[in-house]
Each structure stands twice: as structure tokens, then as C-alpha cells.
Design a protein that fits this description.
disordered N terminus, Ferritin, mainly alpha, 2 domains, about 190 residues
């Protein structure tokens, strides 16, 4: 009896594995994926991280742009602050619609790093404010352009790829404006 029970258990185990394999294959045909494709899930994760990172950038730029309009001593810096607030608010609205379509939850308020940057900058005034704000905008927009260029080249999601590509000219305009303000505030 014991040899039969081992054989029966082995056959049952093999049957279960076979049924699981068949079940996975039929699911794969329905979803268009193959097994546990970690590349697809990591790409989705990369897209989600990109959207969240961009939301944090937009929230910070809006907040700092408002501060620049209040604390900037140069008219060019105040104007840049207005442009940053307006353009990043528009970008945030587009991003929110895209994230909603992709079922990605975006942050509603600036993160701790943005709050820290805001606090440091809000303690400055006059030419010190103009210089530090301009420097921050140059550095931040260089980083943002790299981020958007990378995602527009590597994202497998066509909606995200197209949006990132379409946003790049605005970021480049911001960098050009920030560089001009940086030169004026030296």
C-alpha cells in the first residue's frame, strides 16, 4: 500500500503543477504577457516613479515661483517666478490627467526636500534671493531635462512618452530664462 500512496501523491502533485502551468499559459494569452515578466512590471514601476517625481518637481516649482514673485528684487526674477508658477501649474494639470488615466496616485503637497528648499530660500532677500533662486532654477531644470529626455527615450507607455517629449521644449525655455536671470543676478 505504501508504494501506491507515494505514486498517487506524486501523480497528484504532477497534475497540480500541470494544471497550474496550463492556467498560467491561458492567462498569458489573455493578457498578452509571458509568465512573470519582471521587465514589464519594472517598466510600469519606472513610469510610476517618473510621474510621481514630476509631480514633486511641479509642486516645488509652483511654490518657489510664488515666493520669487514676492521676494525677487529683479523684475526678471519676479517674471521668471510668474512663468514658473503658471507653466508648472499647467504641467501639473496635464500630469494629473495622465496619472489618473494610468491609475497613479500623485502627491498633493510638496515633499520634505521641497519644503526645506522653500524654507532656506524664504529666509533670503534682495540680490541673495535672486542669485540663489536663479541658481536653483538652472540646476533643477538641467536635472528635469535629463529626467524627461531619459523617460521619453525609455518609457514603453506611449502616452507617457509623448507627454514627456512634448514637455521638453517648455523645460528648455525655463532653463534659458533661468540662465539669463542667473547672469543678471551675479
Amino acid at each position: 500500500m505504501k508504494p501506491y500512496s507515494i505514486i498517487i501523491k506524486t501523480v497528484m502533485f504532477a497534475s497540480i503543477l500541470s494544471m497550474q502551468a496550463c492556467s498560467n499559459n491561458s492567462q498569458d494569452k489573455n493578457t498578452g504577457t509571458t509568465g512573470t515578466n519582471t521587465t514589464d512590471s519594472s517598466k510600469n514601476s519606472d513610469d510610476k516613479k517618473f510621474l510621481i517625481k514630476v509631480a514633486n518637481i511641479n509642486l516645488e516649482e509652483i511654490q518657489l515661483g510664488q515666493l520669487a514673485q514676492q521676494n525677487g528684487s529683479l523684475p526678471a526674477v519676479r517674471d521668471m517666478g510668474k512663468m514658473m508658477e503658471d507653466d508648472h501649474r499647467k504641467c501639473m494639470n496635464e500630469l494629473s490627467a495622465l496619472a489618473s488615466k494610468k491609475s497613479v496616485m500623485l502627491p498633493a503637497s510638496p515633499n520634505d526636500d521641497a519644503q526645506s528648499d522653500y524654507k532656506k530660500l524664504s529666509e533670503k532677500s534682495g540680490t541673495a534671493f535672486d542669485k540663489d533662486y536663479s541658481d536653483m532654477m538652472v540646476s533643477g531644470h538641467k536635472d528635469a531635462i535629463k529626467l524627461f529626455e531619459k523617460d521619453s527615450a525609455t518609457s514603453t507607455d506611449q502616452d507617457i512618452k509623448q507627454w514627456a517629449t512634448a514637455t521638453l521644449p517648455t523645460l528648455r525655455k525655463h532653463l534659458s530664462t533661468a540662465t539669463a536671470c542667473q547672469n543678471q543676478s551675479k
